[in-house]
Hints:
The structure holds two protein chains of two kinds. By secondary structure, chain A is of the alpha/beta class.
Amino acid sequence: xxxxxxxxxxxxxxxxxxxxxxxxxxxxxxxxxxxxxxxxxxxxxxxxxxxxxxxxxxxxxxxxxxxxxxxxxxxxxxxxxxxxxxxxxxxxxxxxxxxxxxxxxxxxxxxxxxxxxxxxxxxxxxxxxxxxxxxxxxxxxxxxxxxxxx
Amino acid sequence: xxxxxxxxxxxxxxxxxxxxxxxxxxxxxxxxxxxxxxxxxxxxxxxxxxxxxxxxxxxxxxxxxxxxxxxxxxxxxxxxxxxxxxxxxxxxxxxx
Lengths: 150, 96
């Protein structure tokens, strides 16, 4: 099953806050039938309690997600941001990270999707590649490159 | 048999990733799954589950004085930054 779809990859999304990008991506997942209409609120609430900013290096990423019950069909929504927005650090909640890439995970059964999760983590460790992705303005082109890696 | 609990916010996504990585890294050091077992939970469940375990690894922030077993920050299992130190600590704390 394909988790990454071209219609859920977005280059240089213009947002000013974490909430705005959460809303943007959750809405896209919902419009594409991947998640229930309760997903967005659940992701927002969870991000406040258990933030998902990952200090992956110079280019920080966030992986917002929530419980499987809000998901219809597994998918991921991938966005590079026009300019960084603050997310809280997963491991040190008080710390702020300037996040440039947001990958919203809508998973049904993470144990069966662990290979994809590992590939995603490997991708986040490749700062050179993230920097190249960050430069792309075209969502299709961005999709082409990411799909080779996850 | 040492028991390790891997926990994250909901006990689903990042704990799965961290568990998988932990197993791979321990295996690289010649420590097989015969020597330890893994459990997974949300951080909210740690306190009640801790008595059954020897060590907890969390990917989220976790401070709780009621938990008497060692708690290790497992974020490096996701980011790979400083992962050797985490594995050293696991091996050291459990005497593997």
